Amino acid sequence: MRHQLRRAIAATSAVAAAGLVTVACGGDDSADGGKTELTIATFGEFGYEELYAEYERLNPDIDIVPHTTGQGGPHHQAMFTKLGAGSGLEDVVAIEEGHMPEALGKSSRFHDLSEIGPSDVGPDRWLDWKYESGQDKDGKLLGYGTDIGPLAMCYRKDLFEQAGLPSDPEDVKALFETWDSYFEAGDEFIAEVDDVAWFDSSAQIFNAMQNQLDVGYFDRQDNLTIESNPTIRQNWDEVTDAAARGQSAGLVAFSNEWNSGFTQSAFATKTCPAWMLGVIEEQAGEDLAGEWAVTDAFPGGGGNWGGSYLAVPTQSEHPEEAAAFAAWLTEPEQQITAFKAAGAFPSQVEALESPDLLAATNEYFGGAEIGELFAAQAQKVGEAQYKGPGDGKIQENAATPALQSVEQGASPDEGWQQLVQSAKQIAS
């Protein structure tokens, strides 16, 4: 999942091994001249550093104490451990979308932001599907939406030309119109270009397809649907069939080998949420500047991968102040600032209409108008898919390993049974 804007780069760095600092949930109000201390826990790169200083300038009675972990996994593990212990959590905590279902299952441990937050912060601030994904089944609002990861498709223009495929961002759209057309183009590509796969990883493709379904791994009664929803198996068969025909590079996403795959031209296309552009530029390097392109097309119409929320645990000693701080960080103007600082694509309706955002371009991707492109892709995301408790764990700890086992020689049926059994264990 992770995703995670340019924070995905941080996940592969040495600093990623660092754990969260364990602190009390609120600071001593008598410290620093009686100021209220607000702690905030994030991971990777949210683009908030300048904003912390600005908030303190606007609110002289507030001291912001940030705690940042390089990698999302340790961040969330520490957060849920502290949540269970009933102490040690910060006043504001960032929760990545893949871990939000688990947080929603523990909604009693968080404040309802619609009750304690500023009165002028309403649902109309966000895209509908982003706001809805921050609510539990009873409508309690656990998190203010930060960034999102609307999906487009990135590809290597030079490799497409080598295969005799169209390479202009407008001309390639037909290749990425549906999953059938995508896999058909993959067959054409690998028939013409030796030693280059069509995509990086079966799991990356399968997870994108899974997130497009009306009903995911769970229905709204939290029943596991992996055996009752035939579309999940159909997606599995499509992906594993394509891999069997040689379309997958068989790389583990965000591993060292996957990172090297960009420079070694191991694959020609990449599922591309907004934050992935930074990852590609970082890993592919200057030698491939202009060879990577991005188009506002995605098989099946679109989707979202990544993005986070800011929540206020009931442990906070300053819940209203914390909610006001989280609300300010997610205002349109601040979301634009975070986008400029770290590539965190806004989830706010007003921010998505901002000329400042819409004018954004990316020279590495040939001057692509990425602000306008991803704003349009964000509008293509429909109703939020319900994510039951354990949804993210199934994606990360069941589907991904099962698909890797198929890429390493297991039969698709064996991999499917591995997925089903692992999903049942997670859901039980």
Automatic annotation (TrEMBL):
Keywords: Signal
Region (Disordered): 385-428
InterPro entries linked to this entry: Bact_solute-bd_prot1 (IPR050490), SBP (IPR006059)
Biased composition (Polar residues): 418-428
Signal peptide as annotated in the record: 1-26
Keyword Signal assigned: yes
Stored PROSITE patterns: PROKAR_LIPOPROTEIN
Coiled coil region boundaries: none
Highest taxon of source: Bacteria
Keyword Repressor applies: no
Name by which UniProt lists this protein: Sugar ABC transporter substrate-binding protein
Native organism: Saccharomonospora piscinae
